[in-house]
Design a protein that fits this description.
This protein has 452 residues and is of the alpha+beta class. 30% of the residues lie in helices and 13% in strands. It has helices spanning 32-35, 43-50, 64-79, 103-110, 127-141, 212-215, 233-254, 281-288, 297-301, 375-390, 411-425, 431-434, 440-449, and strands spanning 15-24, 28-31, 54-57, 88-92, 117-121, 146-154, 172-182, 340-341, 346-347, 356-358, 363-365. Strands 1-7-6-4-5 form a 5-stranded mixed β-sheet, sandwiched between helices. Strand 4 (88-92), helix 4 and strand 5 (117-121) form a beta-alpha-beta unit. Helix 10 crosses helix 11 (411-425) and helix 10 (375-390) packs across helix 13 (440-449). The longest helix has 22 residues, at 233-254. The protein starts with 14 loop residues before the first strand and ends with a helix. The model is unreliable at 269-301 and 309-369 (pLDDT under 50).
Length: 452
């Protein structure tokens, strides 16, 4: 009778404490008299009811990330901790003006913290306390040795200067703390709580979506564009496909398992409308190895409850319907010949006439042709790639055919084809060139002109 492998997990809790703190106050001092220029109040009234005499406002071009950077560097210096030792960055803020990307990853990049977990939390006044508690728990269970916590707001951007009830209260600034391992307890328990029924007591006046219509009125000569999400799809696709296998391998290894121990591989978006049924994560699977993707939810529910399933996430992706029913799709093959074998990371030997190059994530082998190929040979090789990705017969891939109209190839499949063509023919096809490859002839010509 076989014994299931057990997960590796910390079995001893550690202590944590705050090793160092730092703060930043903007240069501009704003007096009560200045505030009273836009509200019906007085310096005396404000002092009596709030005790506030002055507050600080950031410069117009000074962001929450700018303020956080100063506070964070001071906290790291006071703690005697280098950026390389930080494993997690948590930023508590409700005034970072972008819903995505978060402020924490950008701050981590500025501080040269190598590849940390980095995320924002939105809990308003309680945000910093929440973040300290999260950091304490993460250090205690061994998630990280040091966590950088930042509480920062630029409320001057979001406060109505004409609102008598709020204009005099809020200001700008940042505070930071480095939470790390300790020999004795240094952070006490947190008493968590929330009051959802009081949502109208302190609230944003209007939802952002409520402003869209008036921002984009058709009768305006220069309407303000709605701040929609944008994405460099081709770049994101490359990143997601070629990074997922490495991350999955690291997660499996950290759990003390091997790919053979897994029952299922659950890629990002498995639980919603995240992406089309068989794109993206499927493209990564040949690089990752391990079990096949279980797409059927009932099948997932039938798995052994004690089974092991790594969940690799990379953010929200595109939603797309199924391809026509008469099109039999094959699994995308985007693995580079000679790259690491499945999830084991063991390099495959290069093939005849090949050479091994080392990338930032994994050792890969890029096929090099000993001599330039003819256009016909490129066409045949490209047809093989299209067949592997879409199930189209190679004979259908002709020079005058359009990828989208004639061959019905969507943008995600096209990116898989491009990535495989780069490896097969030893060329680099920049993202801004992909949009110009509308017909098969365009791709063949580009590859022919850039061989070697």
């Amino acid at each position: 009778m076989s014994t299931r492998p057990s997960l590796t997990a910390p079995d001893v809790l550690r202590h944590a404490r705050i090793h160092g703190v730092g703060g930043y106050r903007p240069e501009r001092v704003v007096t009560n008299e200045e505030i009273c220029r836009t509200i019906d109040s007085s310096d005396e009234w404000i002092r009596q009811r709030s005790g506030i005499v002055t507050r600080r406002f950031a410069r117009e071009d000074e962001s929450v990330i700018d303020m956080s950077e100063v506070a964070a560097r001071r906290a790291l210096e006071n703690a005697g901790v280098s950026p390389e030792q930080v494993g997690v960055v948590i930023m508590a803020t409700v005034t970072h003006p972008y819903q995505t990307p978060a402020a924490a990853p950008e701050l981590a990049h500025r501080l040269a913290i190598p590849n940390p977990a980095a995320f924002d939390i939105s809990a308003a006044c309680a945000g910093y306390c929440h973040a300290i508690s999260l950091a304490n728990d993460m250090v205690r269970v061994g998630t990280a040795d040091y966590v950088l916590v930042v509480g920062v707001e630029k409320l001057s951007d979001f406060t109505d200067p004409y609102d008598r009830s709020t204009a005099f209260i809020f200001g700008d600034g940042a505070g930071a703390a480095v939470v790390g391992v300790s020999d004795v307890p240094g952070i006490g328990p947190t008493l968590w709580g929330s009051l959802g029924e009081q949502r109208d007591v302190i609230t944003q006046r209007e939802p952002w979506t409520g402003l869209r219509e008036q921002m984009e009125q058709p009768d305006q000569s220069d309407p303000t564009p709605w701040p929609s999400f944008v994405m460099q799809g081709q770049t994101v696709f490359r990143w997601a496909v070629f990074s997922m296998a490495q991350v999955a391998q690291e997660a499996v290894s950290a759990a003390g398992l091997t790919p053979a121990d897994l029952d299922a591989f659950v890629p990002p978006g498995e639980h919603a409308h995240h992406r089309r049924d068989d794109q993206g994560p499927q493209a990564a699977r040949p690089r990752a190895g391990g079990p096949r993707h279980r797409r059927d939810r009932q099948h997932l529910r039938r798995l052994d409850p004690a089974g092991d399933e790594p969940d690799a996430g990379g953010g929200r992706g595109p939603a797309r319907g199924r391809r026509p029913a008469d099109r039999v799709r094959r699994r995308a093959r985007v693995c580079r010949p000679g790259g690491p074998h499945a999830l084991t990371g063991t390099p495959r030997p290069p093939g005849p006439g090949g050479s091994t190059t080392t990338g930032s994530a994994v050792t890969t082998y890029r096929r090099r042709q000993p001599m330039a190929l003819s256009e016909q040979e490129i066409l045949e090789g490209l047809a093989e790639i299209v067949n592997e990705e879409t199930g189209l017969e190679a004979e259908e891939v002709q020079m005058d055919k359009s990828f989208t109209e004639d061959l019905d190839i969507d943008s995600l499949s096209m990116m898989t084809i491009v990535v495989n063509a780069e490896d097969k023919f030893g060329v680099r096809i920049p993202d801004d060139e992909v949009k110009n490859l509308t017909h098969v002839r365009d791709a063949v010509t580009y590859i022919n002109n850039n061989q070697g």
